[in-house]
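Page 42, continued from yesterday. The earlier attempt failed because a stray header line got pasted into the input along with the sequence. Redoing it now with the clean sequence only.
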Amino acid sequence: MELRSHEAVMVQEVIKNLLINNQGNYVDCTFGQGGHTAAILKNLGEKGSLTSLDKDPFSDEIALKISLEDKRMRFINDSFGNIEKHFEKESLDGALLDLGISSYQLDDPKRGFSFKKLGPLDMRIDQTSSLSADFWINNSSKEEIEKVFKEMGEEKQSRKIASLICEKRQKKPIKTTKDLLEIILFCKNKSTKRHPATNIFRAIRMRVNSELEELQCVLKGVGKVLKIGGRLVVISFHSIEDRMTKRFIQGRDAEGIKFNFKLVGGKPIKPHPTEIINNPRSRSAVLRIAEKVS
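This time it went through. Structure tokens are written below.
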């Protein structure tokens, strides 16, 4: 199977707002297939350095190739939530978070991320994790499933879908993307502009990979490892993630935090219409920039 190549989102905007010092030290917290990493290295000075992180083992081979060709770059196969383990306090000039899921993950049926592909219900970014979408769907309580669909998926039919899942799994485990899709389509209006399964699949992926908890950890970690004046650039694709990022920058979730950020540039940046045409998956992207001030 040929997988679609992943196009990094808002590359020029990232470079413009992240690289305040091209001889500085930076981290790309979400390597993926290396699109942003390659762009950063292209614009980084000879004395600059870049560390890229990703917990998906698929990224290892691509990252190793880049790091062998460019000694300014190193790769760490780990969750970005563990960022504090890998850097000294106030040692970085900038950090990038691209919170989107990569095309190669969506397009591989074996990964089970997409309702458009028939495959096992997996959805694990870290393939060594014990919690798959299959296990979660077939073992969680109806109350938990409904809560995840309502809060993470912002799904209006959360109760109805959760109830039908629990009813169906008593007769036969829900094992494939097709099994889940059929349940969703039975419960939802199929004439909506967005595909009826979008919110549910996204919510399960976020739950299985603890994405909101990871985001909280990395934001707090970045606050510690960035220098004063260092830049934080976050690209989010979900309103919950964007709200969390905004609240963090504003210091509204500041319990126990001893650093402060200020928003750079006013309104968040969205992709240019031309980019959306060339890369439709960028259409929901929102980029926020912050500077550490104390």
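Notes: The first strand starts at residue 25 and ends at 28.
Reminder to self: strip header lines before submitting.
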